[in-house]
Sequence to fold (316 residues):
Amino acid sequence: MKVLCVGEALIDMICTDRGVSLAHGQNFLKKAGGAPANVAAAIAALGGEVDMAAKVGRDPFGQHLIDLLIEMGVDTKWIFQDPNIFTTFAFVSLMEDGERDFYFNRGADKELTESDLAALDLNEYSIVHFGSATSFLPGALQTAYTSLLNSAKASGAIISFDPNYRHLLFQNNTQSFIDQCWPFIEACHFFKLSDEEALLITGCDTVQHAAAALRKKSSAVFAITLGKEGTLLCMGDHLEMIGSIAITPIDATGAGDAFVGAVLFQLISTNAKSLPLIDILQWKKIIANANKAGARTCEYMGAMEAFKHLNNSIFN
Fold:
């Protein structure tokens, strides 16, 4: 059983001059990123079969992303290199007040088209994961993303969704983000939201009310991550809180992606053709293991570097 992850692969440029704006930063650390690329890397690190569909530039940074994903064990045959546009960059600096100075230099990720994926046979995949932070921004990817959702529904694949809301990308158009999330929530079989995303998308004032609102709109199994408080699991009439793992965090980047990757790895490992075949006790174990994967990721600097320390022995 194999997973397809679709969305952006990009370069995070992290300013290592603490407390200064991007305009005044002098030193930057290059890190591979993009939420769906992180999920693919986590699945591969745990021992699962996974393909990544994305577009990068035909430049040193796009090649770096491809090489690193191959090193992690991800099949990159659906990653396209465009010679006419640069690989997408995200520049981030942590200010003294704790706020982030952010600049998004969007390039090739938005140019992934329906025609690029025309030869993609979704019957090869048991799970299709939609986890792109940029797919709801204008561009060819936006159309390709929705088209692929419809194809995944027709193929009978298990559909997974993680919206990966980034306020700095949607601060002037939050409603568009919310409106585009709902068709994916209604169509998918599993989704993961942070507590912030759950409140934003539903318009509710508590996580419990948000969970109730989501249950009215979707029959999917879903998880709402609550940081150190744990994860709220919803499966039908079951609502369970799964405790978090006590750690001393170094870098939380990619923890949510590791969580999703661990869930999807366990789903393909069960060989279940549909999620109703997995009972609540199995789901509680799946989420507890996913919490472990997220916690392990927080113990290292950089998501891809952290994933090199992931393996399925952490589930024991």
The two ends are 22 Å apart (CA to CA). Residues 280-297 form the longest helix (18 residues).
